[in-house]
Amino acid sequence: MGHAVGDVLGLAAGVAVSPLPIVAIILILATPRGRLNGPLFALGWILGLAVLGAIMLAVGGSGGASTHKHPATWVGALKLALGLLLVLVGARQWRRRPADPSQAKLPKWMAAIDRLTPPKILGLGLLLSAANAKNAPLTIAAGASISSAGIPLPQQIGTLAIFVIIASVGVLAPLAVYLLMGERAQSVLSNWRDWATRHNVAVMAVLFFVLGLKLLGDGISILVS
């Protein structure tokens, strides 16, 4: 299990560093219903990662992801494909980054956050975790790694839980600051929001590229071994 946890730590950290979801929860916390909607968003985020990871564990279990405690060939091919996808998206993101970070703009849908109902906030958390161009491939890759580690199902579930917890640190940190710091949280969260907004594209591009290369290396290693 220790090897499996070590294998997914980097992927979990890549999911945790998600500037737009961090900005989203900070904006949610600034609304009149922030105390309700903030935890709902975080819950949606956690559920999205957990469900997607669990689906991948089920696929890996039924598809023979581990053969004699070694990842199956299709796991290597999957990681290779996911790595190539991330590298290509990262290169596209880097070309689209603003020349002046101060001119970076938030997506238009964020302007409507204060009007979203609690069920929609929950759904937004699910969407930004499980359907995100970076988070979905990384979670799928983590699930594939866990299912191919050759460990019993309870240990697979435990490893997935660790992955989800670490991957959720990025959105849980603003929520913790909001709940624990009271009025002082506003200035802290405002600084976090401004930094994440300015550097979102560059940070995402670097993460796409670095984590894509990692998955490419993992995939090649499995296929040639």
Q: In words, what does this structure look like?
A:
The protein has 225 residues and is mainly α. The chain is 77% helix and 2% strand. The chain has nine helices and two strands. It has a two-stranded antiparallel ribbon with strand order 1-2. Helix 2 runs antiparallel to helix 3 (34-62), helix 2 (19-29) runs parallel beside helix 8 (169-181) and helix 3 (34-62) crosses helix 6 (135-147). It is globular.
Helix percent band: over 70%
* SSE string: HHHEEHHHHHH
Query: What number is the mean pLDDT?
Result: 87
In what order do the strands lie side by side in the largest sheet? 1-2
The largest β sheet comes out as:
2 strands, antiparallel
Estimated radius of gyration: 18 Å
Q: How would you summarize what this structure contains?
A:
The protein has 225 residues and is mainly α. It is built from 9 helices and 2 strands. Helices cover 77% and strands 2% of the residues.
SSE blueprint and pairings:
Elements lengths: L1 H15 L2 H11 L4 H29 L3 E2 L2 E2 L1 H24 L21 H13 L4 H13 L5 H15 L1 H13 L3 H40 L1
List keywords for this structure.
globular, 225 residues, two-stranded antiparallel sheet, mainly alpha
